[in-house]
Amino acid sequence: MIVFKAFLRVVNKCKGPIILYTAILVLFSTINTSTNDNTMDFTAERPDILIINNDSSESFTQNLINYLTENSNIIDIEPTEEKINDAIFYRDVNYVIYIPKNYSKDFLSKKNPEIKIKSTGDYQASLAELLLERYLKTANAYLNNDISEEELLSKMNKNLNNKINIEMTTKLDTTSLTKATSYYNFTNYCLLGGSIYVICLILSSFKNEKIRKRTIISSMSDKKYNMYLLISNSLFATILWLFYVIISFITVGSIMFTLHGLLYIINSFIFSFCALTIAFLIGNLMNNKEAINGIVNVVALGSSFLCGSFVPTEFLPTSVLKVAHILPSYWFINSNNLIKTIEVFNFDSIKPFIINSGVLLIFSIIFIIISIIISNNKRKID
After folding, report:
1. Tens digit of pLDDT for each residue in 202-244?
2. Which spans in the chain are helix H?
């Protein structure tokens, strides 16, 4: 009880850092929420195409022009090379098609005439190139059947007019899940930073010479002493975790009341316990209070950058992610990223989550064992 009372006095002096980490988390989640309010829907853009037709008004050439007109924006520009080059430079045109003389006759005669093009090289120009290639490949496929031009154009147009209907079958609220994932990924920094700062400060206070001597001559065993400290620190870590969970219900929204939200909460709870054991280990290793800020920057900030808390893992180099595997934060953030992709809840879908949670618990057990060994050895030396 005496250990617990002393613990509460030290925690009371650490209100500033706790409020600071909470403010950072709330600010980040608010900015993230407002940024993600505008969902990004895919819309296929029609490329801007300029057609320079040097062929006569043959049916095959005109059919090509009609096809391109239906699937792109045909731009009307003075057909001089200077004007064309300027239009490409300023992105007024994405793709320029030069149809040579006698193109229809040469193509239908299987002479494989060349269509020259100019391109901006961007994605719209690539789309225009796909349109042209589709038309020509379809024409070549039917041309090999030795059919009349009228029948060729009829079959081509029937084939080219076939549309594919795409239906989104997923029922996931991807916008809300992305917000929740970003929020809980960022809590990696807040849970680690807050736990390390406060717990290291608490443990260093207990290492005060007078307090240490009183503890040594007391009847309290090392095992009991470490148990009280671990329980007290666990209470702090649990309160800190619960506080951040409550904030998530406010900032993220209704998704937290679903099974996805429950997994986010469970994952963060397991990681908060792991963060506690990391802080407990560091607190047993260090004696200097002045070094706490530096340790927070190295451990909390370093792992957050390496493991995808600040920068999404898909943007991180493979070499960095391989190194990140040795850090608990990687497994925590990896679980968050997995949760947002789960559509059906069954053993197969949550198996990776269970594995990641098991890895975090193994890390925690290892840190606790090392902490107890270090603490016992130090007390024997004293």
Report:
1. 777 766 666 666 655 555 666 676 677 777 778 888 988 998 8
2. 2-13, 15-35, 59-71, 81-89, 103-108, 123-143, 149-160, 174-206, 209-217, 222-251, 259-285, 292-296, 302-307, 318-324, 328-339, 347-381
Q: Strand 95-99 relative to strand 116-119: parallel, antiparallel, unpaired?
A: antiparallel
- Taking the C-alpha atoms of residue 106 and residue 117, their distance in angstroms, rounded to an integer, is 18
- The neighbour count for residue 166, using CB atoms within 10 Å, is 7
CA distances from 180 to 247, 260, 298 (A): 11, 9, 26
What is the distance of C-alpha 152 from the center of its chain?
49
Residues 367 and 278 sit within 8 Å (Cβ to Cβ)? yes
**Mean pLDDT lowest among 96-105, 202-211, 272-281, 358-367:** 202-211
Any idea what the Cα angle at residue 369 is, between residues 365 and 373, rounded to 5°?
170
Range of weakest confidence among 25-34, 94-103, 153-162: 25-34
Contact 266, 258 (CB under 8 A): no
